[in-house]
Amino acid sequence: MDNADEPQIPATMTAIAIEKPGGPEVLVPRDVAVPQPGPREVLIKVAFAGVNRPDVAQRTGAYPPPPDASPLPGLEISGTVARLGAGVDSLLIGERVCALVAGGGYAQYCIADAALCLPVPDAMPLAEAAALPEGLFTVWHNVFERGWASEGETILVHGGTSGIGTMAIKLGKLFGLTVIVTCGSAAKCDEARRIGADHAIDYKADDFVKEVLRITEDRGVDLVLDMISGDYVPRNLKCLAMDGRHVTIAALGGPKAELNMGVIMSRRYTLTGSTLRPRSIAFKRLLAQEIAANVWPLVEKGELRPEMDARFALKDAADAHRRMEAGDHVGKIVLEV
After folding, report:
1. DSSP-derived secondary structure letter, 107
2. Residue-wise pLDDT tens digits, 48-95
3. CA pair distance 82, 188, nearest whole angstrom
4. Residue 178 — φ and ψ, nearest 5°?
């Protein structure tokens, strides 16, 4: 397919650059060249970009982009296809899509691998579409592929009102899980239950280990989705049922944990974890195929929608990061381009 009908594309665009590692103030608008799609890639005219915790880590210098990725922040976008790279015959110019990207989302145009683009249903606003890919890819892989979650099981999710937490609640309920979450206030627990959590524990008011065991009548949960790590890990293991699985996707509480390996062996626990951004494009393409087959029909039917918190103009990316770091958000923050 050629690009004869592609829209007029400027040579430069506005993007949010990270001037140097630091606070939100280092996010500044800059004029940069519009990138060109390579083989099997597309150029997307960005409508919205999702804001994620890894963006904050990249801004502070703690999570540098992979060598072949854009240095600009932004891991998920929605918009319309503006240009096709060589060999792309699965997408059309002007098609509404959302995409998982390895960087570059905080910009007017962004490159995406064609296989990582998912069609946005007509009934779905592009703001919501931009809030899907990062959380959806992360939760699907870690809960259902690495964590082997299956219908009838119980999962404990920390950070229940975060972007990942709210997606874990919604996917968990759609696929037959009982979902227990932890949150940092009674108000957030109320929000988590509104979103669909079966149980919500205020970890500042209650010992989440005792509460999990009370809720499960001392059986424990089958799976923990852990974003904290650090000293949470031995506490998480106390929440696990026999043959339980512990999946770590972030280490907000520090990367090191002290574990009793005898307990792990005797209770046959499985400990695993992953990061998404550095994974190969081949892996991400396979993951996209799994999501397209198993989850996207639910999106098309309107049964799965992201929990939306706030939107900011692209130029106000610093304020979006401030909101995320304040920890008051419930669901996803997006930038309107």
Report:
1. B
2. 999 999 999 999 999 999 988 999 999 999 999 999 999 999 999 999
3. 40
4. -90, 125
DSSP 321: H
248: its two tokens = 């770590």
Q: Indicate the residue type of 38.
A: G
pLDDT, averaged across the chain: 96
State the pTM of this model: 0.94
Cβ-in-10-Å burial (0-12, 13-18, 19+) of 318 comes to middle
Does the structure show a pLDDT above 50 at 214? yes
Has residue 66 been placed in a domain?
yes
Range of the domain at 83: 12-132+277-336
Per DSSP, the three-state class of 335 is strand
> Token pair of 215, please?
């809720």
In whole angstroms, what is the distance from residue 107 CA to residue 46 CA?
A: 7
Instruction: Tally DSSP H helices, then E strands, for the chain.
Output: 11, 15
Q: Residues of 184-215 as b/e, b for ≥16 C-beta within 10 angstroms?
A: beeebbebbbebbbbbbbbbeeeebbebbbeb
Q: In whole angstroms, what separates CA 272 from the centre of its chain?
A: 18
Is residue 96 within 8 A of residue 124, CB to CB? The reply is no
User: What does the alpha-carbon distance between residue 176 and residue 239 come to, in Å, rounded to a whole number?
Assistant: 20
Helix axes 186-195, 163-174, angle to 10 degrees: 40
Number of independent structural domains in the chain: 2
The residue from 273, 291, 311 where one domain ends is 273
| Residues whose CB is less than 8 angstroms from the CB of residue 19 and which lie 6 or more positions away in sequence, other chains included | 26, 27, 28
Q: Choose one of 229, 254, 273: the last residue of a domain.
A: 273
Exposed / middle / buried, residue 305 (Cβ in 10 Å: 0-12, 13-18, 19+): middle
